[in-house]
Amino acid sequence: MKIIEKMVQQDIIQKENKEWMEFGLRQAVHIMGNWCLVICIGLLFQLEIWQSLFFYFSYCIVRIFAGGYHAKTRPGCYICSMICIALAFLIYQQITINKIVCCLLYMIAVIMIICYSPMDNPNKRLSVVEKVHYRKIVRCVLLLYSLLFAGTMCISFYRMYVLSLLAVLFAGIMVFAGLLQEKISIHR
């Protein structure tokens, strides 16, 4: 990356940190690209920008700590993620869901995530200490989202509680898909 090379030449960063800086810059560009793509997908489904960002942020936070299905390649992961997001936005746009069904689906997703997370990544297995740590974090995150979900449901802020449901539901689906992925790889 030319910008990093110039920073090394100008002694802004040390040569030994060059690889880390390049990695960080690539990650930042990748993350910003994801956010922009999510906004574009949301706009295609006539969601407001805040709705797209709220869903994506909520979904990502749960997915980071809960784990679940992992594609074998980065492009595969990217495509799978964008399909899930588009599907969630399509569902959000097309259905009206009552509070009882919404609560039941939310509880099923939370139970699934609590029971089976954190899921190992086939490329990097978690140690026992890491599993305990991520289990605590995912439970705290789910508690916060559950409070948000309940609060927005109490004040009948439909758009917010349905987006919360979809974020947790799709994270739960990815945990379930991760279980299937693990079972299939064991039988091979």
Automatic annotation (TrEMBL):
Native organism: Blautia caccae
Record's keyword terms, sorted: Cell membrane, Hydrolase, Membrane, Protease, Quorum sensing, Transmembrane, Transmembrane helix
Record InterPro entries: AgrB
Sequence intervals crossing the membrane: 28-47, 53-69, 76-92, 98-116, 137-158, 164-180
Name of protein: Accessory gene regulator B family protein
Keyword Isomerase recorded: no
Source organism phylogeny: Bacteria, Bacillati, Bacillota, Clostridia, Lachnospirales
Pfam families named in the record: AgrB
